[in-house]
From TrEMBL:
<dbReference type="InterPro" id="IPR036259">
    <property type="entry name" value="MFS_trans_sf"/>
</dbReference>
<feature type="transmembrane region" description="Helical">
    <location>
        <begin position="86"/>
        <end position="103"/>
    </location>
</feature>
<feature type="transmembrane region" description="Helical">
    <location>
        <begin position="156"/>
        <end position="176"/>
    </location>
</feature>
<keyword id="KW-1133">Transmembrane helix</keyword>
<feature type="transmembrane region" description="Helical">
    <location>
        <begin position="182"/>
        <end position="204"/>
    </location>
</feature>
<feature type="transmembrane region" description="Helical">
    <location>
        <begin position="250"/>
        <end position="273"/>
    </location>
</feature>
<feature type="transmembrane region" description="Helical">
    <location>
        <begin position="216"/>
        <end position="238"/>
    </location>
</feature>
<keyword id="KW-0812">Transmembrane</keyword>
<keyword id="KW-0472">Membrane</keyword>
<protein>
    <recommendedName>
        <fullName>Battenin</fullName>
    </recommendedName>
</protein>
<feature type="transmembrane region" description="Helical">
    <location>
        <begin position="123"/>
        <end position="149"/>
    </location>
</feature>
Length: 288
């Protein structure tokens, strides 16, 4: 009788195949140690009632993002592991902010406006001030103008805006050598739109990653800004009148913003969170 039970058990195990749990039968002695020894220790089996349930193989199927898991668990924001690379993703936007402000005098002189008290200089400075206008408008109204985008996509939109502002300045003023001030208005306003959009929406994206990740993101802001404002100052000490160096500074920031967008899209987890799903309807409800 025991020998027959063993044969039935072996047959059931063979029919189950690799990656499946054999169908239990009433005649099987499921507590028999011999049957358990025949199962591979590294091949997990799952059964639901009397049905055969396949188990996905491979590390990707078994992998669960640590931040998704932490958000779904009872871990507090202080207990979540910090995502340090978020600092690298944040830096390029604030480098763009710094280069637009720190190099404005060099850009003005490149346009042939030497006297900073002239009417032309006043017109130029008015164009530069649009960076603050764009920043203010989209810092307050991003939920209105960008209501069709989730905060995560608004962050990517901000990277694009800063990159476009850099590209316009490089192309119009350093490649085509245009001297018209009007493009300053366009480039600086677009840059302000990107910065205002980024500052508000990046917080919504990194909040569910915990306090540690938020601290690294906040660290990336001054690192990015001062990296350009101080770093460029030191570099221009070696070549104070280099036009190529000016254009290269804008170009480096352009490339870094493209890299920052890729790093954010691929390296910063998209964790579901109430604030990361802001829409115009939610904004309108909060205003009411």
């Amino acid at each position: 009788n025991s020998f027959c039970t063993l044969l039935v058990s072996l047959e059931s195990h063979t029919i189950g195949g690799r990656g499946y749990c054999p169908v239990p039968t009433k005649s099987m002695n499921t507590d028999a140690p011999l049957i358990n020894d025949l199962q591979e220790p590294d091949a997990p089996h799952t059964a639901a009632g009397d049905e055969v349930v396949p188990i996905s193989e491979g590390p990707e199927a078994a992998h669960v993002d640590v931040y998704e898991e932490a958000a779904a668990s009872s871990l507090s924001a202080d207990e979540m592991p910090p995502l340090r690379r978020v600092a690298l993703a944040v830096m390029p936007v604030f480098m763009g902010y710094a280069v637009l402000l720190s190099l404005q005098e060099r850009l003005r002189k490149h346009l042939g406006i030497e006297d900073n008290k002239s009417h032309a200089a006043h017109v130029f400075q008015t164009g530069v001030s649009l960076i603050f206008i764009g920043d203010l408008i989209f810092r307050l109204m991003h939920n209105v103008f960008l209501s069709f985008l989730r905060p995560r996509r608004r962050v990517l939109f901000a990277y694009v805006c800063v990159a476009v502002a850099m590209a316009l300045i490089i192309l119009v003023y350093y490649v085509l050598n245009v001297k018209h001030v009007g493009w300053v208005y366009v480039a600086y306003f677009i840059g302000g739109v990107g910065i205002g959009t980024y500052e508000t929406n990046i917080v919504s994206c990194i909040t569910p990653l915990g306090h540690g990740s938020k601290q690294w993101a906040l660290l990336g802001m001054p690192l990015g800004y001062n990296g350009i404002s101080i770093g460029a100052f030191l570099v221009f000490m070696a070549a104070p009148s280099s036009i190529a160096l000016e254009a290269s500074t804008f170009a480096v920031v352009l490339v870094l913003n493209v890299c920052g967008a890729v790093l954010f899209a691929l390296g910063v987890p998209d964790v579901a969170y109430e604030a990361s799903e802001d829409t115009f309807q939610k904004f309108f409800g909060d205003v009411k």
